[in-house]
Amino acid sequence: MKRAFRRVTNLLPALSFNDLTPTHFGYRPWQASDRELEIQSFNMKANPLIDTAHALVANGKGLLAMDESTRTCDQRFAKLGIPQTAEMRRAYRELIVTAPGLNESIGGAILFDETIRQSTGAGVPLVQVLADAGIIPGIKVDLGAKDLAGYAGEKITEGLDGLRARLKEYGGLGARFAKWRAVIAVSDDLPSRSGLEANAHALARYAALCQEAGLVPIVEPEVLMDGAHTLERCLRVSEEALRNVFIQLNCQRVQLDGIILKPNMVLAGLAYPRQPTLDEVADATVACLLRTVPAAVPAVAFLSGGQPAELASARLNAMNARFKSRAPWALSFSFARAIQQPASDIWRGDPANVAAAQQALTHRARCNLAARRGEYSGAMETRTSPEKQ
Ligand code: 13P
Questions:
Q1: Positive or negative CA dihedral for 348, 353, 356, 357?
Q2: Taking the CB of residue 231, how many other CB atoms lie within 10 A of it?
Q3: What was the pLDDT predicted at 37?
Q4: pLDDT at position 259, please?
Q5: Could you tell which of 72, 334, 361, 368 is best to mutate to test the pocket of ligand 1, judged by most ligand atoms within 8 Å of the CB?
Q6: Is the pLDDT of residue 332 over 50?
Q7: In this structure, are residues 347 and 357 in contact, taking their beta carbons and an 8 Å threshold?
Q8: Catalytic residue, candidates 140, 155, 179, 262
Q9: Which entry of 94, 220, 240, 381 is annotated as an active-site residue?
Q10: DSSP string of 94-159?
Q11: How many CB atoms within 10 Å of residue 310?
Q12: Listed residue (131, 144, 159) closest to 55, CA to CA
């Protein structure tokens, strides 16, 4: 364990900055005035946010993202031949929240606007089903990533207008945390410094509004896997993205012990010919986080980003097996596809498949619980696991 940690820290001076464009450098220094410091230490006294942030990942649990927008959910249904209706989306989300034993591995579930207003066939609000199972309900509040004007190939996430009122409504509907996703594309020229700054600023404005409303913000800057870039390039871009995010979070006076960071794992682009080993991903990801994420942040809950479900578990496991005892934050998960996909493949909209789909869902959640402990192995993916039947 100690040797692995030394290898990560040894990596630091060895890396070259050559693959970043010059525009990635040159931050404005920011210093708090005495008055500002007084306000910040006063804010430290409000702590329900900290309790919620810790509860979300307590006992080795992680988050289940089930917040696909109607469009994304319908696209996935279309591929499986499932009718794209509000009723089918409701039935699918009911299948998820009523999966027996889900609460053993899942501490919080992120819902979409449509879902937080829906109920089971028996009329129980889905939020209530979650809360009764001890799973904390959360809500996606961004309105999606749109083209960033003036910056071809880059996106900016929208949804700040009216957010204060929406957060109040979602709190009333039972949400205790929220999610906002920024999308960062990688190429030889991207991302631009302006793109990183604009997205980090929006994430920080969102996070401050969440904390004002008593909701824990999940802060999600996602560096995409699409492309032919190297692991080192992803490492550099992820570092730069996270550095911008924490500068802006501090500027907006976000209480860092009352957030959860939801980053990408550091990976080579999908089209890069040599995919890294589990240990290389673990080393690069933890090195990136150690350089950028303050120890005050309670948890890092990774997105899966389209990785195969078993690989996402194996990579999370490698991080925890090598660094868990030394990392200042919990290394957890907030997967959507890497938990749901085997289940939706089994369900295909047929009520007769609900029980098998639920088993597949809880199996993946359990595999990730084991990965949080560094105890996952391929042996968990046996013939008896439902998605292999
Ligand atoms: P994936 O795990 O499928 O990447 O989804 C996570 C998520 O919440 C995307 O915003």
A1: positive
A2: 20
A3: 62
A4: 98
A5: 334
A6: yes
A7: yes
A8: 262
A9: 220
A10: HHHHT-TTGGGTEEEEEEPHHHHT-B-TTS-BHHHHHHHTTPEEEEE----EEEPTTSTT-EEE--
A11: 18
A12: 131
**pLDDT tens digits, 208-228:** 999 999 999 999 999 999 999
pTM across the whole model: 0.90
pLDDT > 90? residue 294: yes
* DSSP H/E element including 184: strand 177-184
Binding site membership of 181 for ligand 1 (Cβ less than 6 Å): yes
366 Cβ inside 6 Å of ligand 1: no
155 CB near ligand 1 (under 6 Å): no
Q: Ligand 1 mean position to 341 CA, how many Å?
A: 11
220 as an active site residue: the answer is yes
Which H or E run includes 199? helix 193-212
Q: Tell whether ligand 1 has an atom less than 6 A from the beta carbon of residue 335.
A: yes
Confidence of residue 382 (pLDDT cuts 50, 70, 90): confident
With residue 3 as reference, give the H or E element that holds it: helix 2-14
Q: Is 336 in the pocket of ligand 1 (CB under 6 A)?
A: yes
Judged against a pLDDT cut of 60, whether residue 4 lies above it is answered with: no
Q: Which residue has the higher pLDDT, 255 or 11?
A: 255
| 15 Cα to the center of ligand 1, angstroms | 29
pLDDT of residue 47: 86
Q: 193-212 vs 231-251: helix axis angle to the nearest 10?
A: 50
Concerning whether 45 is annotated as a catalytic residue, the answer is no
| Structural contact between residues 199 and 280, judged by C-beta atoms closer than 8 angstroms | no
Q: What is the mean pLDDT of residues 382-388?
A: 52
Residue 27 pLDDT more than 90? Answer: no
